[in-house]
Amino acid sequence: MEINAKKTKTMYIGRDTRALSITVGNVVLEQVSKYLYLGHMITEYVATLKEVQIRTQKARQKFWENKELLRRNIGLNTKKRILACYIFSVFNYGCEA
Q1: What domain of life is recorded for the organism (predicted)?
Q2: Of 46, 54, 59, 82, which one's alpha carbon is 20 to 30 angstroms from that of 68?
């Protein structure tokens, strides 16, 4: 197995910022302060506020996309299941349903 140095990034996670100098072969790997991994924003400060804001916005958008479905004359339990499936899942897991 080989590491692709052009695609590989490094990040120091902690309270203070440090410069890393990791080399693969003769190539110094780029250090980043944040990146998107499986739909989640990973930052060097392990701050979750931005992640919660992103998930809230996605869930709000899904709610408004499904508002006509929720306005229909259907039972309360059915509406709860729709909310759990289409809106709460986006908030909890950050992925689009």
Answers
A1: Eukaryota
A2: 54
DSSP alpha helix (H) spans, the chain: 49-65, 67-71, 76-82, 89-93
CA nearest to 90, candidates 47, 61, 70: 61
∠ CA 93-41-48 to the nearest 5 degrees? 80
8 token code pair: 């590989």
pLDDT in tens, 40-77: 777 777 666 777 788 888 888 888 888 888 888 889 99
C-alpha dihedral (80, 75, 70, 81), degrees to nearest 10 = 20
pTM of the model: 0.47
Give tens-digit pLDDT for 75-93. 999 988 888 888 888 877 7
- The secondary structure of residue 8, as a DSSP letter, is -
Cα–Cα dist 30/7, whole Å: 9
